[in-house]
What does this fold into?
Amino acid sequence: MTSLGRSDKNLRYLLAISVIVIVIGSLLIYGLSIQPGEYNPRIETQPHPIPPVAPPEEIPSDEIVFVEVDDLIIKLTPEMHTYATHNGDKGTSIRIQVTLKNNGTNTVENLHFWKVTIYWTDGFANFTSGFIPNTNYTLQANSTYAMELEDSHDWTGIPTELCWGGSQVYGRILISYDSNDSCILTTARFDVAHIIE
It folds into this structure.
């Protein structure tokens, strides 16, 4: 075999290896750019986590929150459980009962409950979490739909004071849907129950 033939063969090998490296590298970069639970392409147009802010001057006293935007009425009944075990494990469990009512003549599409940020007033600690199920909802005209959102969060960094009680807790919930230009951001007081295991 001539040196020219060997050179062509080596060039083909190098080209094939380069293509494989580029493909694998692209897949890795794409995979690392996807955040768990944020598969919806509309996430790119929404605020990422709800930014931590100072507590509002007045935390809502009602445990049931009504949000009305256009013809959509959203009723939220949030509750939160915190737990601490004798071996030091701590965490939270969030549950929100939701009733959606569409009083309009148009269908509401891609209604999405993105995330909730929990704050407590006795410190600066907070955390942002997604919801289960993480999905889009379609609400037909003149219809009502009820569901439950939840999230469990094992988190050793949660302040012990929150697990033992005595803190005021509130959450900011981020909601969006297609026909609304901006996100709905509502603040709710969470009814907190404490479980010591």
User: Anything to note?
Assistant: The chain has a mean pLDDT of 67. The CA atoms of residues 140 and 190 lie 29 Å apart.
